[in-house]
Amino acid sequence: xxxxxxxxxxxxxxxxxxxxxxxxxxxxxxxxxxxxxxxxxxxxxxxxxxxxxxxxxxxxxxxxxxxxxxxxxxxxxxxxxxxxxxxxxxxxxxxxxxxxxxxxxxxxxxxxxxxxxxxxxxxxxxxxxxxxxxxxxxxxxxxxxxxxxxxxxxxxxxxxxxxxxxxxxxxxxxxxxxxxxxxxx
Length: 185
Description:
Number of strands: 0
């Protein structure tokens, strides 16, 4: 049974990695990728140690391939803020026992998108050189980032609804290896 659960986790991680990579590489609306929702999803069935390494590995692989494909540096001053935000989101989801088979998953995606936007825009304000380091520059940074928040919120709802609906469908059909163990946490 342990081997089947490990195999289920590995297969699911590979699927999540492929989804993250495909939807990062194809042209899309800014901030409309599923990375935040996928980090929440991984928290629904991995233990803490697996979660840390899976989220970090997912981000490094996807960013490296995307950076290579788009011909730009995959890592920069934004890396710390993006990676810590995603790890915090995944661990908060783990601690909250967010289940991918429940509609609270959608709420978690919305709140996570907001938290991600709040945290990562500190980097834009503080390190991008685009804004003066003053209260006015700080406010300008967040005001100009509002469209990205909107895209992120839409993506959170869109991708989380797809995951919840998929989990419900797969649980009903019991078509995925070990699906009951994955969604009953």
